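Input chain follows. Return structure tokens only.
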Amino acid sequence: MAEVVVVGAGLAGLACARRLVRAGVDVLVLEAEEVGGGRVRTDVVDGMLLDRGFQVHNTGYPEAQRVLDHERLALRPFAAGALIRFGDRLHRVGDPRRLPGWGPRTALAPIGSVRDKVLLAGLSSQAALQAPDALLSRPETTTYDALRSRGLSATVIDRFLRPFLSGVFLEEELATSSRFFDLVWRSLVRGTQCVPAAGMGALPAQLATALTVRLSTPAEAVSPGEVRAAGEVLRPRAVVVATAAPAAAALLPGLDVVPGRSVTTHYHLAPEPPVSEAAIVLDGERSGPVTNTVVLTNAAPSYAPGRHLVSSSVVTGDAREPAVRAHLSRLYGVDTSRWEAVAAYEVVDALPSQVPPMGRLRKAVRLEPGLYVCGDHRDSASIQGALVSGRRAATAVLQELSRG
């Protein structure tokens, strides 16, 4: 009989189980789906790697540095910048420290004034140097209001920051907490955005190594020291609910969870790569439904060997394939009529909302003796938050077990 049962084999649950196992605890992980990973999953379709929605990993996440072997993941980086469609061309906007060759074009890009670009550079420098606790101590408002109060114009927000951050927050109003924005911007400046060569599903797969995971076993009910699943009653010393927020709320009535944000991601095969850069493409004019798009194989050829795979995501607006295809033609400035539609994923509740007031960033993981909860809805809505919440839950469980 396992000492601890973890319900959910997403990043948080696997991180929790991994820490417990390394401390010598017998752990069983139950997963409702036929494969683990939660929202971080990769399907293999006709030799292509299709992540469940466009996702990236950030090498700057401190918890990821502690629990993941980045070298074994064979991470493939994206450019530290974006291509922004405005007018009749794509404009390069990048971090001059890491993309010095983009510097002159960034300076000339019509995303805002010279003052805006100086302020952006200052914003990045400040975020890189400050500790998370210092950022979290700032007065909280919406991201939009914070950017305006820091002197950035509506022009640079609408032409660059809004298109970019919409894909990060999965909302276009920039209503997300300024505290969460500061943490996100810090991670972007300090880390590299990338994907594993084997797809984002390689992250949970690595965490699951040496763990006992029972798939296709949904939990029907949980209580302190008891789990009912697949007609069986398990009575461990502790139960950790590590599902996404909606499932956690169903298993734990009264749990404080926030609404989730959704996204639809389309995959296309293009006869030729529409751009040569491994960079995200944004619409500075917001002339269609596509929030962001990227030629994945420019960064990671392993996603579709010998082919050109394009990932495009829609947060609001018409997410049907014809509308997406038409907008992609505008964004890339090419004929997309011969592009092959490969797949589309509607990811419901892809990310917990982080609107103010966030209150305490980290919510309690110990509900009562013998019953715990973890997930990105207990911390920052990110891979970092999921991993940290898993560690916090494991630490709390170990403390209880040590008391006998």
